[in-house]
Design brief:
alpha/beta; Spore Coat Polysaccharide Biosynthesis Protein SpsA, Chain A; binds uridine-5'-diphosphate; binds magnesium ion
Length: 311
């Protein structure tokens, strides 16, 4: 018998967890000679998610749970799930059924029969999402794909099925600032992409505000690209060159035409502009410094309060 570990990160998902469990139970019947284990990671939910997980565990001991001491974020939850997983294959899913369990059979067959190590999914539509958010997402993926050395796929979900070998590779990267889509690109392996249409959340609401997504996007860029740092030095060189040319021109002009005192408004503008560029560059360096700072502290990614094994 082979085993698939299904990892589900849950933050205030009391409404969706039971629906997810039912759907997964239905889907798992399509598999032959495969057993399942469900690992629900309760990421510091403030509702009754943990209570529901405990009830599910009572009913069905395939259901396991890891409950955090507070909200550590989805990346930490996925990491904890991967660490707890014991299956030969591991899949990461959202609790809200936006990652259709029905695709799992097809994904599993690709790994078994076509020799892939990992099957990932991407949404080809963003139906039901605010227009502005889709626009920013698209710009973000274009940008990050250009400035990193790794392939960043537009619309990629965290929903994937992988062999335990890929899981171990991901777990070997213990960085604090995690951006999973980048980590999966980084580890490589044969990956097949499956496309599907966006599905609306079955119940509850999204946990991602625009601001949270924006910060996550910055995380992705600083974690996988040093291009912004290069940008700061390129801007620096550019302005040195420009100012060199100006100094030369002014000297010539003064020698030829004398020195009438004019043009101080333009001077003020230039000072403000260069000041702005300097602050921007400092800010970029600061971003990287702050990430390094957090990394150096070596804090744990998450803290567990209880699991089904230690209550
Ligand atoms: N999630 C989590 N911790 C968080 C935020 C979200 O574990 O701090 C989980 C959430 O419970 C869900 C998944 O991550 O299972 C995706 O979240 P959501 O559906 O809110 O995001 P969206 O699909 O809108 O991008
Ligand atoms: Mg969702």
């Amino acid at each position: 018998m082979e085993k698939i570990s299904v990892i589900v990160s849950c933050y205030n998902e009391e409404k969706t967890v039971p629906l997810f469990y039912e759907e997964m139970e239905r889907v798992s019947k399509e598999f032959e000679n495969v057993e399942f284990e469900y690992i629900f990671v309760n990421d510091g939910s403030k509702d009754d998610t943990l209570k529901i997980l405990k009830e599910l565990h009572q009913r069905d001991n395939k259901v396991r749970y890891v409950s955090f001491s507070r909200n550590f974020g989805k990346e930490a939850a996925m990491f904890a799930g991967l660490e707890a997983a014991e299956g030969d294959y591991v899949t990461l899913m959202d609790a809200d059924l936006q990652d259709p369990p029905a695709l799992l059979k097809e994904m599993f067959d690709s790994i078994k029969n076509e020799g892939y190590d990992c099957v990932a999914t991407r949404r080809v539509t963003r139906k039901g999402e605010p227009k502005l958010r889709s626009l920013f997402s698209r710009i973000f993926y274009k940008l990050i794909d250009k400035i990193t050395d790794f392939e960043m796929v537009d619309g990629a979900r965290d929903y994937r099925l992988m062999t335990s070998q890929v899981k171990d590779a991901i777990l070997s990267m213990k960085e604090y600032n995690r951006y999973s889509k980048g980590l999966f690109s980084f580890v490589g392996f044969n990956t097949k992409w499956i496309e599907y249409e966006n599905v609306k959340r079955v119940a509850g609401e999204t946990k991602w505000s625009f601001w949270k997504l924006f910060k996550y996007a910055l995380e992705g860029i600083t974690a996988f690209s040093t291009a912004p740092l290069a940008l700061a030095s390129i801007m620096g060189m550019f302005f040195c060159l420009i100012s060199g040319i100006f100094i030369f021109l002014i000297i010539i002009k003064t020698l030829v035409f004398g020195d009438p005192t004019s043009g101080w408004p333009s001077l003020a503008c230039i000072i403000v502009f260069i000041g702005g560029v300097q602050l921007l560059s400092l800010g970029i360096i600061g971003q990287y410094l702050s990430k390094t700072y957090l990394e150096v502290k070596n804090r744990p990614l998450y803290i567990v309060k209880e699991t089904e094994r230690n209550k």
